[in-house]
User: What shape does this take?
Amino acid sequence: MRSHEIDYEIIGSDLQLVEVELDPGEIVIAEAGAMTYMEDGITFEAKMGDGSEPDQGFFGSLLNAGKRAITGESIFMTHFTNISGSKKKVAFASAFPGKIMPINLAESGGSIICQRNAFLCAALGTKLEVAFTKRLGSGFFGGEGFILQKLIGDGNAFIHAGGTIIKKELKGDSIKVDTGCLVAFTEGIHYNIERAGNLKSMFLGGEGLFLATLQGTGTVYIQSLPFSRLADRIIEQIPARNDSD
Assistant: This one.
């Protein structure tokens, strides 16, 4: 199924939202709760699945919903449809501060792999799959890095990252990234988890026990401030409750 050709505008600098313009009959899919506002003439419906395979039936939709549940996401996705006779707009934003990155899947080789919480919305026809890393060590030690999402299609998709997004082009070389800071990477990049130096560095270095190593030819997207790190810093600043009070 070919993706709908949606137009869009990203609004804001740091606390961004993406405003999608739909022609009559066009549809955009989004994570539950991501919608900020929509114009009159757009209707929405929660469905199991991304709608990329309309003939897969109930059990096919149920299987895809189960896969999404594994990633920790909602089993439902919201489909927004322009049922009017003119162009209409609907906007989406993430639940935490950061930037929205548009991905043209056709220009990215037809797919991209991203962190499970990175996906925001996409044109109808985009397929979301669970992408497991090849080595189980990535699962046991990678934390956020084991269960990834794979976006497949030929249209526009939008992912969200915390802080600033850094784009790295690899040409047969490698880069080490904190597992929480990894946002997405294209096909051709091999992903693995490695120990962060010797035991002293692992436990006293403050950089975590393991790092993600990405190697190959393609593009890697990194976020400067993952939400998990921000949340940890906020919790550290909350004074411990005095049980005697």
